Amino acid sequence: MGILDVAALKILSSAAVLLFTTALLMAGAKRISTCVYLFAFQSAVLTAQVFATAFVQHSPEAYAVGAMVLLVKVLGIPYALLWLMRRLRTPHDVGTTVGTGNSVFIMAGLILLSFSAVRLYLQDFLAVEVALSAAVALILSGAFLMVTRSKALMQVLGLLVLENGIFLAALVTTFGMPFIIEIGIVFDLVIGILLMGVFAFRIRDTFEHLDVSRLRRLRG
Amino acid sequence: MLLLIVLLLPALAAVGVMAFSFRQAAALFALGAGVSETAAVGLVIWNVHTRGVLTYGKYLRADALSAFFLANLAIVFVLVLVYSIPYLRHIPAGRFSSPRWFYMLLFLFLFTIVAVYLSNNLGLLWIMMEATTLASALLVGFYNTEGAVEAGWKYLVVCTVGLAFALFGTIAFYLAAVRGGVSPELALQWPAALQAASSLASAGSLLKLAFIFLLVGYGTKIGLVPMHSWLPDAHAEAPSPISAMLSAALLNSAMYAVLRYDAIISRALGTGFSHGLLLFFGAASVLVAGLLMVVQTDLKRLLAYSSVEHMGIIAVGIGLGGPLGLYGALLHTMNHSVAKSLLFFGAGHVREGLGTSDMRRLKGLARVLPRTSAMLVIGVIAIAGLPPFGLFVSEFAILSAAFTQTRLLLGVLLLVMLSIVFGAMAYQFLKMLTGEPRSDQKMNNLVGAEFLAMAACAVGLIAVGIFMPAPLARLLHSAMAVLQ
Predict the structure, then answer these.
(1) What pLDDT is recorded for position B442?
(2) Which residue of A19, A114, A135, B19 is 20 to 30 Å from B1, comparing CA positions?
């Protein structure tokens, strides 16, 4: 067994721990920029997983997917979000409606929940339990961030984390969707983030803040 | 090749319209492009009718079901274009809110919906559904007011999250198909998955999981309760031609996605599971939206909740299934599109003319805007499902499907809610139309093109209600044959 084989297997077996850590740290983060760096790290872990899978499966398409994820999620989107934060010049706190300490506890609970949820379907998915649990935990943590953080940029980040979870679920269960579909999904994601950036500027210009929990003109 | 033309024409038109900076020139170009697109859609329908299924490459395919929904889309789009020509004078000039930006986004929106109907691959279908959100988000926020920005943001975020769940559902479906023995390249191709449906039963629990996520995800775009929160805001704050596009074209496209999956799942697992879920969400939508309509104070929000209610009725029709239920559901998508376009056109004219769509402040409309009021009255009678309009036929079919299947509770619920909705709408509109006008503002009455679009809707609704046009009936029956 060559050194690369060992490295690939190690990545696949230990990635989940790192992903759980990023989810917990994000729940505890107080500044948006911290969350952006954590998201970049989380995506880097995912990229490593994609490359490891590509190596184990001998799949050239998966290498291309990995390169795309590296470019878009590790470099492009975090850079764009940091640029957006500088340009928007608004307060950098995440706008918690649930305190960060409690959020970490709730996040830990969500991780346990994802383990028990995955157990029900383990027969069907035939996947590594830990990896699939990590995917579900990321989906839940993304949804949790979107619900409990009131700043517009944190909602974007929550969505990105959620999307990472879905991407991981696809990776561990099916070794990825057909290549052209992956490209389309990433393209949609990039355009989506772009539009959310446009709306972030518009929200700031019309309301002079970015706290979406204070947008409550439209009710009923 | 024809499919490629139908798909790319709107995209080219979106690029081309950017060359016109004058309103009239842009409108004329858009009208020309829209008419050619309609002609191309007509050719597709004709070819599907004579030659059966059309395919182009691996990813584009049109059968009778796509043809039916494409016909619906083309009708709505031409009406919207005609209505937009005079409507655009209300759009204030801004850097990104000029007429050509409006038309560019509108054509991109059309492109994404056409692509949804032509997708052969369920992954591509998801990509294009997500693209419909992206193309229309800026249109929803087009006015750049506080309300429009808030509605646009909410629309973008809620629908993207909803569709993320649909993506998870698509992945689970892919996995179920692969485990059911379909080869990975074919697992997302709709015809292949349908053909292999009976062997998918072995991955039953996974398939059920997939459908739940798909229904929640695409149901967000359909506006089924409880995922409907974006819908009233977006419909109310968007420019009125866009409200019509959202209600009459976008919601149908999401319903179409659910129909495609429902066909596979009910063939694999029997109709009980997927149809039960559709009945549940449909009935919940009718109930909640119907009750909320009673307390609305804004005209366009009232119409938006009516869209939720009608999508619920369509979901119930699909859930009841059988020839009668499906016939009613498909016909209802068409009828609802036309009736709701008429109403949104009218509401748009009221809002732009009198500066508000708050029903508490609108009085004596019949005197200020006689022609618009007449059209609104026709629209309300039609949308309430009274004869001689088309919606009566389709709602009657769905109700009789409910009673012949002895689902008495559901049938009674529908009947009660339809009466409540009729009462609410009649009350709200009578209050608006009668009485003394608040000020003696004499405003310009309907302009030719606006009146033309609305009158065309009214004539179409009566035509379907009194005698079913033979081509539509044929198209409808071959669309049903695809699903059964």
Answers:
(1) 58
(2) B19
pLDDT tens profile B173-230 = 998 998 888 888 889 999 999 999 988 888 888 899 999 999 999 999 999 999 999 9
- How far is the first Cα of chain B from the last one, in angstroms, to the nearest whole number? 28
Nearest CA in chain A to B291: A220
pTM, to two decimals: 0.95
End-to-end CA distance of chain A: 63
- The amino acid present at B366, given as its one-letter code, is A
Best B111, B126, B153, B214 member to test A by mutation, with max A CBs in 10 Å, is B153
Q: What is the ipTM of this complex?
A: 0.94
Instruction: Tell whether B115 is within 8 A of chain A (Cβ).
Output: no
Phi-psi map region of B473: left, alpha, beta (phi>0 left; psi -120 to 50 alpha): alpha
A166 touches chain B (CB under 8 A): yes
B295 touching chain A per CB within 8 A: yes
Contacts of A125 in chain B (CB under 8 A): 175, 206
B376 at the A interface (CB within 8 A)?
A: no
Rounded CA separation A12/B97 (Å): 49
Of the CA atoms within 13 Å of residue B69, those in its CB half-sphere come to: 26
Q: Is B189 helix (H, G, I), strand (E, B) or coil?
A: strand
| Residues ≥6 apart with Cβ < 8 Å to A64 | A179
Burial A84-121 (b: 16+ CB within 10 A, else e): bbeebebeeebbbeeeeeebbebbeebbeebeeebeeb
